[in-house]
Amino acid sequence: MKICSILIRSGLLMCAGLQCLSSEINPELLQHRWPARWISHPAAHQREYGVYHFRKTFHLKSVPESFIIHCSADNRYRLFVNGTPVCAGPARGDPDHWRFETLNIASFLRKGKNVIASAVWFFGDLAPWAQMEVKTGFILQGDSETESMVNTDRSWKVMQNRAYSPTGRERAQPYQFMVVGPGDRVRGELYPWRWHETDYCDSLWLSPLSHGSGTPYGMHDPGMPWLLVPRTLPMMEETRTRFRRVAGVKGFSGEPSCIHGENDTIPRHTSVTLLLDQGYLTNAYPELTVSGGKQSEISLVYGEALFDSLGHKGHRDSVAGRHILGPYDAFHPDGGSLRRFRPLWFRTYRYLQMEIQTGPDPLVLHDFYGMFTAYPFRRAASFSSGDSSLTPVWKTGWRTARLCAGETYFDCPFYEQLQYAGDTRIQALISLYLTEDDRLVRNAIQQFSDSRIPEGLTASRYPSRIDQIIPPYSLFWIAMIHDYWMLRRDDAFVRSFLHGIQGVIAWYEAHIDSTGMLGPMPWWNFVDWPEAWAWSAEKGIGGVPAGAEDGNSAIISLQFSYVLNYAAELMEAFHQTCVAVHYRELNETIKASVYQLCWDEERQLLSDTPEKESYSQHANVMAVLTDLIPQHEQTVLLERIIGNPSLIPCTYYYRFYLHEALKKAGLGDRYLEMLAPWHAMIRLGLTTFAERPEPTRSDCHAWSAHPNYHFLSLVCGIEPAGPGFRFVRITPHLGYLEWVQAEMPHPQGKIALELKRQGKSLEGTVRLPEGVRGILEWRDERIRIVNETSFSIEIKDR
């Protein structure tokens, strides 16, 4: 049976040179159960920690032009063909949407004997929270009758690699939430070296346990918990990187050479500590090659920063008097030649401490480097201006966004690697504005839809094997859909979420109480991380404003109002007019109630609750974004809250909405002065933007990278004026800048502009893709833009 003859175009897998192709999957693949079987180790516990190796030997009379396979595993796998790594997966999903990869491995095959081998690991209770799981399993399906010779069944061989055991968190910073999975301890004397190569002897390996067949999504098979769907994402990038410097040495004379690919010899019975500085935060698979050193132990400890004796990070470049805290791996060489250690999952670090204790034999360090890994985004946007201090903000924001994007978006790569809807809305806008690749955005929107619970809400984070509900994040999922609708022409995709949107709105509507505001709200109604809402023994969970739990929070009510407007636009666009009318009426009712109960006439501010005991920037930002306050009063309100020490301030996350409010109220020229916290992070030596102001937990949090979006959407003023970016509106807010130049991708090409300001006057050139029209607005002047348009607007002081 022909299963599929179309490949997945998945970008370049840097470590192997395999170019996987991505396109539509032949529907026939998803209409039949696969002849291949899910297989596992016949004796090992299928739901406990374990690392396994699978092999299939087969012979070819000649090398084929094409040899297509589809494969997946639980939890994860790394696939080799004749000793060469060709694929890692599966892309993360849930058991009802379990991804499989499609590959053409013909270029790795040879005449005669061939071996496909796969490492598969299952972490059980130690698995990352972002990793959903069922039980240990591996499946590989050949595409055609000829290729079916490699289908997984009992003809494969399997062994459990008992060299692996997990490391704990004893080296990590105490009392910090870290859920990225265990480190690896590998004992070389137990490791089956060269297990994936063609000439390895697997005669002592076992025949696997055979489960049921591969079950495509939508088919019924009560015995198989994994419903298979095609991978829609490219393979992750892997690029070799070198450490920038050796920041500290103990027990070793001279400068270590292994970080440059040259040999270092550590004598027997010697302790050595090398503190290595990448120079910037990165995600990478560290790869260490050694010889000899039997009975040695090598520990690799990973840190975003170093800590002083009080547990403070301080300047991120500082080394003196500081120590490293973080997760770690441990490798015990067996004394053999050219042994390579690489952890099963990537690590996040700026600093990496290698600790070596040799035994009775000397140890040779041949090479040590990192294989940088991330979603293979390619930046297609640029921004430059008359203020050179904005350039490092742009570059640092891009690095932050890249490190927080893999097979899903990550809130932070070091601590969690979870895809949260509130974070992801901002990350998606950065992706859509700075790259031509919207696949990860679509993947995130779909996964949050897949996470919806019977009550109607989405999960706060997904995929996640530990359930969590943050109701406001369901609202921001709707905002994310609206953003995508405005920036991409993809009506069928957007339409598929209308029912889910209505479910979220219905849940919120059911929680409106007799005041007309939202009443007591269950679960975690997180808004932001100001100190006033910090975790405490008295208050319990943090990030929650007054009224969110016990009812009548102006912030939460106005977040609902904010999204009701988006939902109404979507419903009207897709011909659900009655629903749109109801949402607009509901919106006005909520706003009227919030204004009546929470507006403080004396202070001319919106309070957080009707009791008027708490006041925040957040509530007043939402008053602007929802037009609770008339347009002509919004500027005055924002001027009143900016820098007001009596208000609970927005931290990095919610400043996204503060900056959106500036734009809406006509105060966009104030934006650049609002970037002081980002400049401060750079001065503090951060190479990515942090989760919150110091002392921060995470040094890399993508929600803080929103300046990359606002440089283009607010400073340059490039925005869609209608769905699908069919029409472009450019409303620059240059502030103190005398000039800017920028480019950004558009579904039909590129938008480019060069602007020069002198006083209130503006001149420049705007280029739009062929067939796209736009308008440039400056002060009270409006200029139509078609193709390439040069203009000069002279405004004289009256």
Q: Class of the largest domain in CATH?
A: Mainly Alpha
CATH topology title of the largest domain: Glycosyltransferase
Kindly, what is the distance between the CA atoms of the first and last residues, rounded to a whole number of angstroms?
Answer: 80 Å
- What would you report as the Rg, rounded to the nearest angstrom? 28 Å
Mean pLDDT: 94
Low-confidence stretches: 1-17, 19-24
Q: What profile does the largest beta sheet have?
A: 11 strands, mixed
Strand element count: 38
Strand content: 25-35%
Describe the structure.
Residues 1-17 and 19-24 have low confidence and may be disordered. Strands 12, 13, 17, 18, 19, 20, 21, 24, 25, 26 and 27 form an eleven-stranded mixed β-sheet that branches. The chain is α+β, with helices and mostly antiparallel strands. It is globular. It contains 13 helices and 38 strands. Strand 34 (749-758) and strand 35 form a beta hairpin. It folds into four domains: 9-233, Jelly Rolls (Sandwich), CATH 2.60.120.260; 238-374, Jelly Rolls, CATH 2.60.120.260; 382-715, Alpha/alpha barrel (Glycosyltransferase); 716-798, Maltose phosphorylase, domain 3, CATH 2.60.420.
Features:
798 residues, alpha+beta, Jelly Rolls, Glycosyltransferase, 5-stranded antiparallel sheet, globular
Entry summary:
This protein is of the alpha+beta class and 798 residues long. It has 13 helices and 38 strands. Strands 12, 13, 17, 18, 19, 20, 21, 24, 25, 26 and 27 form an eleven-stranded mixed sheet that branches. A five-stranded antiparallel sheet has the order 7-6-9-4-11, with no helix packed on it. A five-stranded mixed sheet has the order 10-5-8-16-15, with no helix packed on it.
